[in-house]
Design brief:
Blueprint (H helix, E strand, L loop, with lengths): L3 H46 L2 H4 L3 E11 L2 E5 L1 H6 L11 E10 L2 E9 L3 E12 L2 E13 L6
Parallel strand pairs: 1-6
Antiparallel strand pairs: 1-2, 3-4, 4-5, 5-6
Amino acid sequence: MLDMSFYVLAPLCAVLVFGFALADGAGGDDEAEEIRRAIEEFYFAGSNQQDFSLIERLFHPDTLLVYNHEGRLATLTQEQWRARFDPARAGIEWERRIEFVDVAGTVASAKVVSTSAAVQFIDYFNMVKVEGRWLVVNKVFHANRFGDDQQ
């Protein structure tokens, strides 16, 4: 048989837990919008313009890019990624969209899809809010190259 305090404390705990969940979710919409704006302003613009200084404003310096290369785990540091930027590619047309942003307090994940005539990149960003700014701390991605048999 349960003690009477259970019947008093259980509903109170449920109200508190539910209330905290609602409070976190209410702020989550604002945080998700802030993340969307940052991705558009720095990642999309930096990629479109091939301007890595914009990318650096969103990505933490220790960010690691992770992907599958010919069946093996491969990584790129920011410096290696920077070396791949080429101002001559700034004119390539891309369709870019943010598929989702999921916020939990000071951490978040976002799925970003960027498609050109030759390739589609599917990116998953893991983010942390540091000193009032959302920063990507990890990027996992997949590239679908059109015309390739390997996707």
